[in-house]
Amino acid sequence: MSEFSDWMKDTDLDELFVKTDGCSIRLGAGNEPGAPVSVSDICPVLSPSVGIFYFSAKGQTSAVSVGMHVKLGDRLGLVKLCGDEKPVLAKTEGFLKNVLIQDGQPVEYGSPLFFIEPGTIQ
Predict the structure, then answer these.
(1) pTM for this one?
(2) Domain map of the chain by residue range?
(3) pLDDT averages per 10-residue partition of the chain, 122 residues
(4) Domain 44-118 has CATH 3.40.50.1360
């Protein structure tokens, strides 16, 4: 990692973003020369289909909120189309960093709904 950090200091790049296997990494050299490189993995949770997004099924409550800890496979919501419901599941264990969707909002297949920063509770 230090080799990459040194390489970034020798370029005019302020930040590099790479996405693979549903997760991403953002490397930044900071605003000042010699500033430490910060690393952040953010995994998007994508819509499993076209439809209307709901945080919970009718008559149920949802406790999804930014900052909460989620486990792999936790249900974050559902997408409904013509009576068919597809669950929206956490793709990794971590902390919910962003909620990009509102209850009752139409979504397209593959559109990002949430971002999770991988991690565990200590």
Answers:
(1) 0.66
(2) 2-42, 44-118
(3) 58 65 60 53 92 88 87 95 94 93 95 92 74
(4) no
